[in-house]
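note to self: dont lose this again. the chain is below, predicted strucutre after it. 461 aa total, dont forget to put it in the shared folder this time
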Amino acid sequence: MIQQEARVQELLDTVLGGAPTDAECDELRRLLDQQPELRPSVISQLRTHSLLMWMLSPSAGAEGDAGPHLVGYQAVQAVPSLRSVVAGQRRYWYWFTASILVALLSAGALWGRLGGASHEALGKVLDSSGVAFGEATTALLAEAGDRFAAGVIEIDSGRLALEFASGVSVELIGPARCSVVDGMLVRLEEGQATADVPRWARGFTIATPAIDVVDLGTRFGVATRVSGKTDVVVFEGEVDLKAPAASEERFERRLTQGEAARVDPRGKIERIFQVHGESLGGHWSTLDRPEGGAIAAVWDHFEARESVGFYQVIASGLLEDAPAYVDHPHQWNGVDADGLPSELRGADYVRTANDYRYLPRLSLNVEFAENATLYLFFDQRTAPPEWLAAGFEKTAMVVGLDEDAWQGNPSYVLERGAGRSVDNRFDVWRRRCAAGETVVLGSMGDGDEARAMYGLAVVAE
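---
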């Protein structure tokens, strides 16, 4: 504990000195996450440092003002060694405060700690078209038009998109009710929200009655349920799930890209198998499938203790550059300038989990809501397993996979358009399926050759 206190002080001195590295800022965030009891002293030092920097600035005291600001400034000017330090640091006056705020963002709702709720604008409203606001709404600043402050936001219907000054964006889907506490904390009491958080604003939190969802630089969705549970879906990056501060329970669980969980107030995790929505995670739902679409359900045999990966069902979404997997940024493309085969364009499709490609056992179930043709994209580098050859017909069609950079191939990049940057080719297999039928798919088979997980597309008859 003493060593950690000393290290926090050393890192804080570096930040206040004006030249911290990204690694040092990350280490400071991590230490303050691990030792929350150190936060009050750090915040106190921030207050003191900020006050001194203001007092010791020449602009802090007006001409003829012999108050403490000017006296402090004159005292420093009389000591050359101090004068050189203050002169150097004064250039970073605003930068100091910004740096330490960024370093502490993951440690909690700092804005509230430093001054409590305020009616100063915290950000702007990006889109409120089609929104019906509830009577409880207090966060919108009438005099500012498109600005919002700390307070309640209640919408009966529609979508409301907010952007915080930090660059965090939050989209609410009505009916929803939340309290904007400060620039780093939103309490979602009812409804669904999606947050897109830049790296420098990590620590942004959406709290529900069941859990706190703490961002680690990511895009994630949160939805409250009438059961008292909370659904969390991670589209990019990572989040930490924690018990609310006021709760007697204590738990913590990290979710990464491609994972989704339903969590109760005791921290019990249930797996969410499928998420319906748009290919880029804009509109999404963990509830029943939307009207239309041939895919009724997708699930596998793994329990929550083994995996909390999800499958995303995208209606009419198979177009050029369609995201292929929930856990990797690779994309489906046509193998040449002609693009995807016409038979597949605009099909419903399933974003599977690429990390499942080497699983020795897998039982993936697809249930159909209506008569349809199921298409399966299988990596040409891997021999087709018995269940595929026996249950599907191989077609002459081929689709391509454009891979983004990953640990094995850091030089890979995504490019837009058909036939561009196609790194691997997949044969297309098909099978006719009846309404109400459930088709069971297996693993990709044994082997350690380079491979990518198969993809699924469905075209209703």
